[in-house]
Amino acid sequence: MIQTRKSLLTASVVLLFLNGCGDASLQDVEMASARQGVAAAAAVPLPVPGCPVGALDTDGDGICDIVEAVLGTNPNNPDTDGDRLSDYAEAFGFGGVLDLPTLGANPLKKDIFIEVDYYPGLKPTQAMLNRVTTAFANAPVTNPNNTTGITLHLVVDQEIAAADADSDLNPVWTDFDVIKGKYFNASRAPYFHYMLFANRYSGGNSSGISRGIPAHDFVVTLGFIGGGTELQQAGTLMHELGHNIGLRHGGNDDSNYKPNYLSIMNYEYQFYGFGIGGLNNVLDYSRVQVASFNEASVNEQTAFAPVAPTTEADLARIGGLRFNNVQVVGNASVNLDFNGDGTIQAASYALDFNRSGAANNVFPASQNDWTALMYDGGGQIGLAAQGLSQDLGREQRFLVAPEKMEPCLTVDASDAR
Ligand SMILES: [Zn+2]
What we know:
By secondary structure, the protein is α/β, with parallel strands linked by helices. Helices cover 23% and strands 12% of the residues. The chain has a 5-stranded mixed β-sheet with strand order 2-1-3-5-4, with helices on both faces. The chain has a 3-stranded antiparallel β-sheet with strand order 7-6-9.
């Protein structure tokens, strides 16, 4: 019991740091802590086959060095692939209670796990989910096993009973936690994000919200417009998940509608994606870095410039660009009709892109989102209980309380189709 109480305390501290949107009530924290306690009690690490008692385990991840050599994992790093899921959890799971290997975890390739629950009538289709898993599979991220991409595990779990499907989550995280407390598999708490396909939150018309940046919870609320299209659902899922793994509306800042930020984290693209490789509506986080852009001096011939290591060829692969709600012809490497008047003008002009009311903003060079992801958004990595510490030394920024974020893209009548 003492051990359980200790883990409750730890969970409470973690949660207090994580709540970014809305205020965390004591009730929220206690409820979530109770789940954490269940997880700690249920998931027991087992001895690793092939590791003699007392065998050297240099990185202390629960796998002795001689077995790490067989697996190909790094005996000096408890998280060889850097996804903040420990080598032990990915290779062996926890006593059959949480079997990450069976779910497809690989200690040599980055994995992200999400439990997906949904309101009646809002069950995600496989085609919709595939849009997002494909985007992650195509990510320009390298792995220790020489593959590229991230394996996104969208584990569709169960329908929320009608009686529990609160039509307006308000306050959003208080009501969300009531559902999560009942439907989320507690043993998954240290490893999974939790996502809910719901109707509406906080009396507004927002398409969804993340609990913070980074965080472990998010909701997609398109039920009030009839569920939205496949593209709207997938784009919103990937947008809110992006907040969960550290991305902001400007990538590394909160500046939305930055013309030089080519990511579905930018509202211009959440419901549309990009034209890539001959396909339209391809969902992607930013994979290029585009030079600083000045609203006061927009030149359609100069347009965008790459920042190394991004090349013009990289920019040329990205089409479907949008400015002020209008999609323009061409790709990110050529002349761009920023004001959508049908011509490429030689003279520079001023144009307000970010709805600030004035055309005087200078946007710094954009980031490559895929190399900036924060994989510890799951809330905690591994279980500190059972003497198996898997504190992987989180980045300092994780312990900074996330900024209170604005609700995500508001859905209006023109989007409800
Ligand atoms: Zn957002």
